[in-house]
Amino acid sequence: MSTDRTRPAGRHDQNGPRSVPPQRSRRQQPHRPQRPHQWFAERLLAVLSGQRPVHWMLGHTIGEAYDQLAELAPSTPLGASRGSRPVLRHCRGAQPATGVVEAFASIAAGDRIRAMAFRLEQGPDQRWRCAAVELGGERLTAGAPGPR
């Protein structure tokens, strides 16, 4: 048995402890919770792409937002394009007042990029709810009139 206390018993190489500090892996980094507008963008994308039913947003909307979703969702405006599933590219939010977030997101599906804007309001129970949704980013074709 070795009397050398710097390496485990049975180890016979001459390498000592490494002098390079270990890199932090992703698992060791603290989990950063998703912001409300990012969470809502994912949920709205799921509904407007036909992956989830509209009633999935019932407790997460207020005012006319649910009616807007119910009107938009049947046509799956953010649905798959040429077999590619829509993906949330970017989502940013601004807080114009306490308890209000106005956000926008870009969604890619195949060669199409769509824009989505929505407003979140925080209720007295501290829960965020979607108050309005708008879609844009219609593809322009030569000779066709522009978006409204």
What can you see in these coordinates?
With 148 residues, this protein is α+β, with helices and mostly antiparallel strands. It is built from two helices and four strands. 14% of the residues lie in helices and 28% in strands. A four-stranded antiparallel sheet has the order 1-2-3-4. It starts with 35 loop residues before the first helix and ends in a 12-residue tail after the last strand. The radius of gyration is 25 Å and the shape is elongated.
Question: Helices and strands: which structural class?
Answer: alpha+beta
Strand order of the largest sheet: 1-2-3-4
Distance from first to last alpha carbon: 83 Å
**Element order: H for helix, E for strand:** HHEEEE
Shape, principal axes of CA atoms: elongated
Task: Kindly report the average pLDDT value.
Answer: 81
Please report the total strand number as a whole number: 4
Instruction: Provide the β-strand percentage band.
Output: 25-35%
Rg calc: 25 Å
- Which parts are unreliable, with pLDDT below 50 for 5 consecutive residues or more? 137-148
Please give the largest β-sheet.
4 strands, antiparallel
Number of helical runs?
2
Helix content: 10-25%
